[in-house]
Inverse folding.
């Protein structure tokens, strides 16, 4: 089951190459009490574009396989 994580975001840039889109994760974001978002980047996008998405957890990933 996939669930959204409240108040946490993932930050990506989308790179277009050879008619394909490649998503590269650049950092994280956190929701503040006043509704604003702090963004922490590990790298800067060359194209200047950021895609900020609500973090999604896959509960299957946390469970050991039998």
């Amino acid at each position: 089951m996939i669930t959204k994580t409240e108040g946490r975001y993932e930050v990506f840039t989308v790179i277009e190459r050879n008619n394909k889109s490649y998503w590269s994760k650049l950092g994280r974001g956190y929701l503040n009490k006043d509704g604003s978002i702090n963004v922490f980047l590990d790298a800067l996008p060359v194209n200047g574009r950021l895609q900020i998405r609500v973090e999604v957890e896959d509960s299957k990933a946390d469970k050991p396989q039998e």
User: Anything to note?
Assistant: The mean pLDDT is 86. The chain is about 5% helix and 60% strand.
